Amino acid sequence: MAPTAIDPTIIDVIQPKKDSLNLPSESRKRLEKAEIDLSGGYPYRPAKPLYLQDVQKIRETYREYNDPGARADPAKSALFAAAERVVDLTTHIGTEVVGLQLKDLTDRQKDELGLLIAERSVVFFRDQDISPQQQKSLGEWYGEIEIHPQVPQVPGVDGVTVIWPELQATESKASFRRPGGASRWHTDLVHEKQPAGVTHLHNDTVPTTGGDTVWASGYSAYEKLSPDFRKIIDGKKAVYRSAHSYLDRDDPTAGPKYVERTHPLVRVHPATGWKALWVNRAMTERIVGLDKAESDVILHYLFEVFEKNIDIQVRFKWTPRASALWDNRITIHNASWDYEGTQPRHGTRVTALAEVPFFKDEAPTRRQALGLATED
């Protein structure tokens, strides 16, 4: 599916900065092997949109979406037969596939990988030889690639964003007490009309110690709630906001404002049909229809269900050239900054946009669908 281009004529911008940081050697080798043009500087930094109204216009058109996982063989026979091993890292979330190269997957295997991600929330592959272009091509299988209006990107490959903490520190310096950035529980692009589905992060350079990423399962977070409490939040909607703020063209003196969108608190995944809790502390603002005090109490509890139940989380120790593919519709994640910038870290990320979030009261939980222990 072709990406939606951002029309520069509709956007008032803050001009980008020139970056002069040194690329980690392994990252440079990967980019040069992929024939990425680094002569104009790295990364490419789009001019930052200034006004809220311009950002709101970028993706207002509805896009039809069909989840590839919904057409996959439930047994995933093509994917599993080609792998050396498939290892579930925890009971509820996280699977590592050994012995496959993502760039070489067949169409059938890509569908089955989509279903595996939908069922297991996040899937890991180590020792991947994959270029930014191949990473984007794989991402396009799972939906329209998100082209962010302002984050750093690989030059010449729109939609492949650069995850480079050293670069991010030039704008917002992290510290031990306030690591900031991705070091908080969140999920990506919740402010979109059709938010993120599958994200693929490939790290070509990682610290020797630390820098792990943690994911938590939205399926299991929902199942941690009592059946009576679920009735309180089923069908409710919340306001979700963007990570970046902008000025209101109609009232620029009012200060920065966020893009806001209303979506269900509990959503159903189109490939599995299972219910998942869909809130995150960083970007879920309030529950529609409740007073602020009521909303704050319920949201704080839901955030803690996600964050404090370690049995519904998986922590991944990165190695060079590892890839993680996760489903933003059914997870939240948090990147550890315990290495405190003492060693380089660099990767590229591709995110496919998915469906308009929806809720179905009759949809089962994951445990119900799999015939697991009765929920108390």
From TrEMBL:
Its cofactor is Fe(2+). The keyword Metal-binding applies. SUPFAM superfamilies: Clavaminate synthase-like. Keywords: Dioxygenase, Iron, Metal-binding, Oxidoreductase. The keyword Mitochondrion does not apply. Residues 87-351 form the TauD/TfdA-like domain. Belongs to the TfdA dioxygenase family. PANTHER family: ALPHA-KETOGLUTARATE-DEPENDENT SULFONATE DIOXYGENASE, ALPHA-KETOGLUTARATE-DEPENDENT TAURINE DIOXYGENASE (AFU_ORTHOLOGUE AFUA_3G01010). This is TauD/TfdA-like domain-containing protein. It comes from Lepraria finkii.
